[in-house]
Design brief:
The complex is a heterodimer of chains A (about 110) and B (about 120). Chain A is an all-beta fold and about 110 residues long. Chain A is about 0% helix and about 55% strand. In chain A, strands 2, 4, 5, 6, 9, 10 and 11 form a seven-stranded mixed beta sheet that branches. In chain A, strands 1-3-8-7 form a four-stranded antiparallel beta sheet, with no helix packed on it. Chain A is globular and about 35 Å long. With about 120 residues, chain B is mainly β. Chain B contains no helices and twelve strands. In chain B, strands 2, 5, 6, 10, 11 and 12 form a six-stranded mixed beta sheet that branches. Chain B has a four-stranded antiparallel beta sheet with strand order 3-9-8-7, with no helix packed on it. In chain B, strand 5 and strand 6 form a beta hairpin. Classes of the chains: A mainly beta (about 110), B mainly beta (about 120). Chains A and B meet through strand 5 and strand 10 of A and strand 5, strand 6 and strand 10 of B.
Chain lengths: ~110, ~120
């Protein structure tokens, strides 16, 4: 069983479209994250939820909206996609919000044309 | 605020040679330190961590790192690299004072390329 799984793995879409990426963890962790990795491999935290409560909300366009229906799931919805949104998006989880030991999914590569 | 500087963006090294990947951090509070590895087309995985205690920590795949508080460094080393070590390596720092951010701050990464 994959510990942190995200779907889809690849996403190719046109500018202006809306898309979602889903993430699920089966580790029983309390905290989940979304990271964006650009073409230079730079990792930027976007959001973090702890027990379904938003605890980190970095400066990202409000076109990005996370949603955590329960503590095992954290989805990312993106409205009105732009070229600059092209990146690999990683979901991660951790036992709690105080640990730095994160478990990452394999990433979702988003390409906006 | 905390920050991480990985001094080398790329490190080429011959197979079976030793390697050191450098990491310096900046923080006004106590920190935990981590190294993560990202193999091509995969997510990151934890290589090793320093929380407290011995300043020399050992991780998976023969890697080790040494925490040096006076130099605010946490360099990663391996005495003999293998082709399979080719990957991107990320140093990361987390405030554990309880008064700071919950955020894990990553460095910009070092691409290790092992040459046959």
């Amino acid at each position: 069983d994959t510990a942190v799984s995200q779907t889809p793995k690849y996403l190719v879409t046109q500018m202006g479209n809306d898309k979602s990426i889903k993430c699920e963890q089966n580790l029983g962790h309390d905290t989940m994250y979304w990271y964006k990795q650009d073409s230079k491999k730079f990792l930027k935290i976007m959001f973090s939820y702890n027990n379904k409560e938003l605890i980190i909300n970095e400066t990202v366009p409000n076109r990005f909206s996370p949603k955590s229906p329960d503590k095992a799931h954290l989805n990312l919805h993106i409205n009105s996609l732009e070229l600059g949104d092209s990146a690999v998006y990683f979901c991660a989880s951790s036992r709690d919000m105080n640990t730095g030991e994160l478990f990452f999914g394999e990433g979702s590569r988003l390409t906006v044309l | 605020a905390q920050s991480v500087t990985q001094l080398d963006s790329q490190v080429p090294v011959f197979e079976e040679a030793p390697v050191e990947l450098r990491c310096n951090y900046s923080s006004s509070v106590s920190v935990y330190l981590f190294w993560y590895v990202q193999y091509p087309n995969q997510g990151l995985q934890l290589l090793l961590k320093y929380l407290s205690g011995s300043t020399l920590v050992k991780g998976i795949n023969g890697f080790e790192a040494e925490f040096n508080k006076s130099q605010t460094s946490f360099h990663l080393r391996k005495p003999s690299v293998h082709i399979s070590d080719t990957a991107e390596y990320f140093c990361a720092v987390k405030d554990h004072s309880g008064a700071g951010s919950y955020q894990l701050t990553f460095g910009k990464g070092t691409k290790l390329s092992v040459i046959p």
